[in-house]
Amino acid sequence: MALDIRLLEILACPIDKGPLLYFRDEDSLYNPRLQKRYSIHEGDIPVMLPDEADDVDDEEHARLLAKAEADGITPTFEV
User: Fold this and answer.
1) Exposure pattern of 65-75 as b/e (b: 16+ CB <10 Å)?
2) 56 φ, ψ to 5°?
3) In Å, how far are 6, 7, 10 from 56, measured between CA atoms?
4) Residue 35 region, left (φ>0) first, then alpha (ψ -120 to 50), else beta?
5) pTM: predicted TM-score of the whole model, two decimal places
6) What is the helix (H) or strand (E) element at residue 5, kind and residue range?
7) Which of 41, 42, 33, 38 is nearest to 61 (CA)?
8) Residue ranges covered by each domain of the chain
9) Which of 49, 45, 22, 20 is nearest to 34 (CA)?
């Protein structure tokens, strides 16, 4: 299951209020500015609590950015 497109259009990082990258196949939303990853449970329930976000190291950050570029993943909304 995937997140609803209407939800993605309004979903923002709870910390900096900016757009996220949605990795459907990894069930996660990623904020590259803060290097924070938010999990998606059961395919359609994003856990957007700052305390529940995972910190991403530089190697994983580079992997996620490369994957986003290769797969054509764009931010959830334009600033």
Assistant:
1) eeebeeeebeb
2) -110, 130
3) 27, 24, 23
4) left
5) 0.93
6) helix 5-10
7) 33
8) 5-71
9) 20
